[in-house]
Amino acid sequence: MTVEESDLPGVGKKHVVELDGEELVIVTHNTGKREVFKRPDSDTDSEKLFELSDDLARTVGTILEGAYFQPVEAEKRQTTLPGGILLEWYEVQPGSPLAGETIAGAHIGRRTGVNVVAIERSGQTVDSPGPDTELREGDTLVVTGTNEECDAFERLLAGEE
Predict the structure, then answer these.
(1) Domain of 84?
(2) Are 114 and 145 in contact (CB under 8 A)?
(3) Could you tell me if 32 and 96 lie in one domain?
(4) Which residue, 51, 73, 91, 125, has fewest beta-carbon neighbours within 10 Å?
């Protein structure tokens, strides 16, 4: 798969993505509006599929990127944020030494450097959990940190530290 980028003076940018013999053409206007076209091949006219506002395009982009939902249960899910900071999801497995501990009591930040930014628990999301939030088996912790910090947290979560 290749992605070609070109400037459209006075309009914005055009990206062409090759998809199994077809091309997906995305025009990003200077206003933020995105137009998405499909072109069967480079010799054929494009067919406009849809248009998105800037906010909607960003929301769709985060959905496609996996920030809203990970369709495959993976041992380690990660998203890279600007500056190389990772956003990762970890499940508190039965028998984890963190189960039953509070965020502060486990000294997660001091021991690993990660920040717990949310907890998915029983279909609900605990946003910005405080230091007194107790971690439970089955919780999915959403953390931010560097690759090394996330690796250290994974070891702590598994009882390897």
Answers:
(1) 77-158
(2) yes
(3) no
(4) 73
Please give the distance of CA 149 from its chain centroid, rounded to a whole number: 17
CB 119 within 8 A of CB 57: no
- Tell whether 85 and 143 lie within a shared domain: yes
pTM for the whole structure: 0.53
| pLDDT tens per residue across all 161 residues of the chain | 688 899 999 999 999 998 888 899 999 999 999 999 999 877 788 899 999 998 888 888 877 776 666 554 444 455 777 777 888 899 999 999 999 999 999 999 999 999 999 999 988 899 999 999 999 999 999 999 998 999 999 999 998 87
